[in-house]
Every structure is written in structure tokens, then in C-alpha cells.
Amino acid sequence: MNEVYLETDRLRLREFTADDVELLVELESDPEVMRFLTGQPTPRHQIADVTLPAILKRYAEHPGLGTFAAHQKADGAFVGWFGLQPTDVPDTVDVGYRLNRTAWGKGYATEGTRALIAKAFTDLGLQRVVADTMAVNHRSRAVMRRAGLRFVKLYHEHFDDPLPGSEFGEVLYAIDRATWEAGCHG
Ligand SMILES: CC(C)(COP(=O)(O)OP(=O)(O)OC[C@H]1O[C@@H](n2cnc3c(N)ncnc32)[C@H](O)[C@@H]1OP(=O)(O)O)[C@@H](O)C(=O)NCCC(=O)NCCS
User: Is the CB–ligand 1 distance for residue 8 below 6 Å?
Assistant: First the structure.
């Protein structure tokens, strides 16, 4: 495994490498995982030619940020990814996650998201962490709440090819440094 980006009690996060196509193909081949993202499995060529190269490019463009492969510390199994992405707002990052279905229901998403928020406010010196998802993605919203993010707003976007449930809109959650430091994060 290449350099560790972050460790939690049960997970180890690292940068992806060019050898990780198969891990992402498997993750994005499950329609349930993709249900609130594209609604369908991602073709292998798209992962190899677009998704993974974009992830690798971002490490150089935004040191400390990006999309990170997560493995169980116990046995090394790949469970999915977590991300901290830059936004248009200075000192504000967007946290996200995508886990294999076999890794759902274990608290991994909450554990990883809490740790990323802590990293954003400590090592990375940032001021605000946001997260967004479809309003109907209740599992993702529950992760946001458990990780200390708070509901900010419901908003609507135009999609040419909307996913079922898009009519209920998107939701934005956030936590700022002062709130996190005051201890409302856990
Ligand atoms: C969003 C997603 C990561 C949520 O996964 P999840 O398993 O529901 O969330 P967590 O990992 O925090 O696990 C919480 C569940 O584990 C249970 N759990 C079991 N052991 C646990 C432990 N040791 N600690 C905490 N929770 C534990 C919790 O009770 C909770 O169960 P519940 O869902 O029945 O209430 C997952 O559904 C996913 O990858 N979806 C596809 C991608 C996606 O939609 N991403 C978001 C788009 S913005």
C-alpha cells in the first residue's frame, strides 16, 4: 500500500494509483451504489480513461485534497473511497464517500467522514466542510448528521436526464471550524 493519507480505528485511507482500475470498476458496477449518482454502472473504459485519471490529476493540483481509497485495517479489503474536494469558496471543502455495498451498515462511512472533517480543520487548516446529496438519499444524509454536519438548505438543479427522486431536490449540509472546535462534532 502506498503512503497512508489517514487512519481511523478500522480504516486506512491512501491515494489511488494507476493500478486501481479494477477496484473502481467493481465499486461502480453495483447499481445500488450508483443509484443516487448516475443511476447505472459505470463502464470500465470510462473509469480507466476518465474517472481514475481525474482522481490522480487532482492530487497534484490540490495537495492534501482528493479522493482516497479506503481499506479495512483488519484484512486490507478495499471498502470504497472517501473524498475531500476543493470548492469555489476559499478554505471550504466538500466531503464525500462511496462504499461497496458489503461495507454498508458497519459505521465505516461515519467513521471516515468524521476523520476527514477533523483533518480538514486541523492538518489542512480549513474553515468549512460542506456535503451535498439528493434529498432522497437518506443513508447519505444520516452519515452527514452523524458526522456532525448540519442541514443548510434544500435546492433544485436542472438535469437534462434526471434520476428518479430528483424532483425532491438536493440538500446541502455543512460544519464550520468554530462549531467543530466547540465540540459539536461528535
Ligand atoms: C452513503 C453510504 C456511504 C452510507 O453507508 P451506511 O452504511 O449507511 O453508513 P455508515 O457506514 O455510517 O453505517 C451506518 C450504519 O451502520 C450501523 N453500524 C453497525 N456497526 C456500527 C459501528 N461500529 N459504528 C457505527 N455504526 C455502526 C449503524 O447502526 C447504521 O445502521 P442503519 O443504517 O441501519 O441505521 C452508502 O450507502 C453508499 O456508499 N452509498 C452509495 C454512494 C452514495 O450514495 N454516496 C453519497 C452520495 S453524495
Answer: no
**What is the reported pTM?**
0.96
First-to-final CA distance of the chain: 30
What CATH code is carried by the domain that includes residue 78? 3.40.630.30
**How far is the centre of ligand 1, averaged over its atoms, from the C-alpha of 106 (Å)?**
6
Q: Does the Cβ of 162 fall within 6 Å of ligand 1?
A: no
For residue 42, give the C-alpha cell.
Answer: 459505470
- Return d(Cα 18, Cα 152) in angstroms, integer: 37
Pocket test for ligand 1, best of 35, 97, 141, 144 (most atoms within 8 A of CB): 97
> For the chain, what is the domain count?
1
Query: Within a domain: residue 186?
Result: no
For residue 77, give its domain range: 4-181
Residue ranges in the chain modelled with pLDDT below 50: none
What is the per-residue pLDDT for 185?
A: 55
